[in-house]
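Narrative of accomplishments. A recurring question from our advisory board has been how the design workflow behaves on a single, concrete structure rather than in aggregate. To address it, we present the structure tokens for one chain from the evaluation set, followed by the sequence designed for it. No filtering or post-editing was applied between the two.
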């Protein structure tokens, strides 16, 4: 007789101490499996996505940077060390931070030595040379008092996250041609640039998803007509069309109206590509067995779209959103550089880049290119997040 090796940890039916064997589905779900896991405790889709996303170092870095950018834009006045509209010396170079006191000894607290004119003259231009004033250091600190603002547009405050403790102006990235602090303007400008990007992506995602799912699922003449219109929108050269449409609004129009018009133009021209992608996904999903079964039992088109098709397309939409935001930020910066996005007194990264219009300015005052750093960080953050999500949304 051939024998079988049986693990003593698994109860046998003949063992009276084993208790009753599972008879139903619920009992089987509660039965322990290898590794001490339970079938009812298996990971869901979101848990699998998060577990796989955590393996992506670049994706986690992008997530942290995106969260930091969003927090910075919401509390921009708090993080800005100075009033972005306060004017000082034009084209002042960035202040250098040093852990050094006035007598040259080491200091535990950082100081900034202001840039002043010295008694020496340039041998070529005979202009006074500038240099740090080591006799009058400006101490730095956290949670210091500065210019007044309204936190969240409601709570009056004058506390800033970092800055000088004695109220003296500091310029970590220098000043622009009007003497305004570039770092403070870049932090406050993130609010406008990211707001435009988020609103445009929200509109384009909503319209593109609705048009793509409806066209792909319903098909027929509706699909043919919609796709011809989508091809017409995609056929237009977008950049000349952006410039042509933005010139239609009067220059004297209020800034809010101008921004709303720019957002509308970007949204009208930006939904078509996503609709094509969603339509292709919908065409493949409409032929799956469970969708055909739902049609056979008489489910409405709205229920099939919202319960069966949209959840399966949602992962692609999320990734498309994270990858579309950097494109809108770059477009807004480019249009702002040309003067077609944001008008003063509002602040955006593209508007700040208008000061870099000539090579002479860039060559003499290279710190004026600092707003490019904000754009690069934003583009990298959202692209890294989108890359990590793209690998994680399909964990199977």
């Amino acid at each position: 007789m051939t024998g079988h090796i049986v693990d003593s940890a698994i109860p046998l039916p003949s063992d009276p101490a084993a208790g009753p064997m599972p008879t139903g589905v619920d009992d089987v779900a509660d039965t322990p499996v290898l590794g001490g896991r339970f079938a009812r405790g298996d990971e869901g889709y979101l848990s699998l996505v998060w577990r796989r996303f955590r393996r992506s170092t670049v994706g986690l870095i992008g997530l942290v940077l995106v969260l930091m950018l969003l927090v910075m834009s919401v509390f921009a006045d708090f993080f800005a060390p100075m009033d972005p509209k306060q004017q000082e010396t034009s084209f002042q170079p960035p202040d250098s931070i040093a852990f050094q006191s006035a007598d040259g000894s080491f200091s535990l607290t950082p100081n900034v030595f202001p840039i002043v004119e010295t008694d020496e003259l340039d041998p070529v231009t005979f202009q006074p040379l500038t240099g740090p004033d080591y006799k009058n250091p400006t101490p730095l600190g956290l949670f210091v008092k500065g210019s007044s603002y309204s936190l969240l547009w409601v709570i009056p405050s004058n506390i800033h996250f970092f800055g000088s403790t004695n109220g003296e102006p500091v310029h970590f990235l220098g000043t622009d041609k009007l003497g305004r602090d570039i770092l403070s303007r870049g932090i406050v400008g993130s609010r406008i640039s990211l707001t435009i990007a988020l609103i445009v992506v929200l509109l384009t995602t909503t319209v593109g998803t609705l048009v793509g799912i409806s066209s792909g699922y319903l098909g027929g003449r509706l699909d043919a007509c919609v796709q011809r219109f989508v091809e017409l929108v995609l056929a237009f050269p977008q950049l000349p069309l952006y410039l042509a449409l933005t010139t239609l609004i009067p220059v004297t129009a209020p800034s809010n109206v101008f921004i709303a018009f720019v957002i509308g133009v970007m949204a009208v021209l930006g939904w078509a590509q996503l609709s094509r992608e969603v339509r292709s996904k919908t065409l493949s999903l409409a032929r799956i067995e469970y969708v055909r079964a739902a049609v056979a039992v008489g489910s409405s088109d709205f229920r099939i779209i919202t319960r069966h098709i949209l959840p399966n397309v949602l992962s692609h939409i999320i990734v498309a959103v994270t990858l579309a935001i950097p494109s809108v930020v770059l477009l807004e910066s480019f249009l702002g550089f040309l003067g077609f996005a944001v008008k003063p007194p509002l602040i955006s990264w593209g508007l700040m880049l208008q000061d870099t219009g000539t090579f002479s300015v860039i060559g003499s005052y290279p710190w004026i290119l600092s707003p490019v750093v904000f754009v690069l960080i934003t583009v990298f953050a959202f692209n890294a997040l989108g890359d990590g999500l793209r690998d994680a949304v399909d964990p199977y």
